[in-house]
């Protein structure tokens, strides 16, 4: 997978989260360090827990409040198709 493909996947995930939950999402793409594993291409994806409104942050996204770790993961990624 090349850099453009990695970026497209990260942006697709961020767009999915923003559209589904109405939140703000930021993506930071990282290359492997010179001293580290050359396969360590990765992205950090940060999202708010509050919906974005015209005048700033609004109500909290309650559908993400499942306290069980597997439940949260399922809520966030459950509707995404992996191909």
Fold and architecture overview:
The structure is a single chain. The chain has 83 residues and is α+β, with helices and mostly antiparallel strands. The chain has two helices and three strands. The protein has a three-stranded antiparallel β-sheet, with helices on one face. It is elongated. The mean pLDDT is 83.
SSE inventory with pairings:
Layout: H1 3-21, E1 23-30, E2 42-53, E3 56-60, H2 69-77
What is this entry, summarized?
The protein contains 2 helices and 3 strands.
Placed side by side, the strands forming the largest sheet appear as 1-2-3
Instruction: Evaluate the radius of gyration.
Output: 15 Å
Summed up, the helix count is 2
Note the beta-strand portion: 25-35%
Overall 3D form:
elongated
Query: Residue ranges: pLDDT <50 for 5 or more in a row?
Result: none
| Overall average pLDDT | 83
What structural class should be given to the helix and strand makeup?
Answer: alpha+beta
Strand tally is: 3
**How widely separated are the two ends?**
14 Å
The percentage helix is: 25-40%
Assembly category: single chain
Query: Largest sheet at a glance?
Result: 3 strands, antiparallel
Q: List the helices and strands in order.
A: HEEEH
List keywords for this structure.
83 residues; alpha+beta; three-stranded antiparallel beta sheet; 3 strands
């Amino acid at each position: 997978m090349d850099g453009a493909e990695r970026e497209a996947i990260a942006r697709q995930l961020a767009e999915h989260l923003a559209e589904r939950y109405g939140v703000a999402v930021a993506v930071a793409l990282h290359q492997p360090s010179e001293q580290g594993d050359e396969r360590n291409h990765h992205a950090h994806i940060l999202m708010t827990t509050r919906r974005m409104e015209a005048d700033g942050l609004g109500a909290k996204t309650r559908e993400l409040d499942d306290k069980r770790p597997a439940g949260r993961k399922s809520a966030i990624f459950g509707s995404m198709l992996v191909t």
